[in-house]
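Many introductory courses stop at the sequence. We go one step further.
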Amino acid sequence: MAVAAHLPDRRLLVVTAMPVAAFLVLLAALAAASPGLLEAGSLLTLADSAAPLTVLAAGATIVVLCGGIDLSVAALASLASVLLASWAPGLHGWAVPAVVTLCALAGAVQGLVHVAFRIPSFVVTLGGMTLWSALALLASGAATVPMPDSTPTDWAFTRLGGLVPSAVLVALGTMAALAALLRVTPLGRWVRAVGHAEPAARLAGLPIARIKVIAFALSGGTAGLAGVLLVARTFSGAPTLADSLLLPAVAAIVVGGTAITGGHGALWRTLVGAGIVTLLRVGLSYAGVDAAYESILYGVLVVGAVALTIDRSKVSIVK
């Protein structure tokens, strides 16, 4: 019985340690193949390339901690890129907060549909993904929208002191702000309580609907911010600009050790997961592997990570 009692703790230790160990092993392997990778400039360039993915996955992590999933984040980021490129000439510096706010509202609407009509988040956000993609196509005329004046987004694609990419600071700042929100306010405890056992949380009097709507709003807002980061480095918006980031974002969340069933996980784990995904992409490119195989690897990673982190006490029947 004593051994059985320690099994959950040991499993939690393994789930926590494995992502960090995998990141260090990947980094060491790539450094052995290319010693220059460990130089400060190379590491900062890697971090810079991971910034949009990190921001995109950060907000989506909160939805997963609630026991849901947001499949619309990449499509919403693409829509954000189109809106930002279209609005910047008229709104100038106000275009960025306007786009991020609109995306947060879009996320909140999805959350409201989810809780009001009791539709699974998978279905709601799958429909949302289609809707945002269609709106992006309509708004852009199915074409790339150039951004003639990059001034509104210069802050998101520069190097402070000529060394540190501003996008890295934006990604870390977003992670820190969300982590502080979850730690300092009751939201963190509420989110985990809902994800761990929603019926018990409801009996305890927690505002389930409000918690979920806030989680989806945060996910939408970070998707909008990720779209801003992408526009900053491409100087344009496009209806499919961020679409390829959906699977990597999900992979970053689950590979980092956040349980897809909710209740267990943390934002720092998603940060590690984003690092793993980025190192794998760089490693595949360095090895000369065709980019088409990346999606295959991400799919395998997602299935494997879910198998390791899933709380099977919640899924006694698998359909």
